[in-house]
Specification:
Helices cover about 0% and strands about 35% of the residues. By secondary structure, it is an all-beta fold. It has one domain.
């Protein structure tokens, strides 16, 4: 396995889409720089895109991408992971495992 520190300074995108949707346009996105593991990210309406509201959804599909060049997209991801049908609530926590 690769040491987690090998990914320090890279960009991580946490992308939320409506659960079960085939639409690729994210409802919300968080962009962060990796400094230490585990990385904790909290999504809210502040991360919403294109006039969409994360709080209007009851569940989302999450996609996590770690990028060396700072650009989103699976083609740029050196690590990726996902979680499906994640219920949204004030106390919701979801662990996403990343793989190359």
């Amino acid at each position: 396995t690769v040491e987690a520190s090998a990914y320090d300074g890279l960009t991580v995108f946490v992308i939320a889409r409506p659960a079960g949707s085939q639409v690729r346009m994210p409802t919300a996105v968080s962009r962060n720089t990796i400094g230490e593991w585990p990385l904790m990210v909290r999504l809210s309406d502040a991360n919403s895109m294109a006039g969409q509201s994360l709080s209007a959804l009851s569940a989302v599909d999450l996609e996590v991408q770690v990028s060396r060049n700072g650009q989103p997209g699976l083609a740029n991801a050196v690590l990726r992971g996902s979680a499906s049908n994640v219920a949204l609530s004030d106390a919701a926590e979801t662990l996403v495992t990343l793989t190359p």
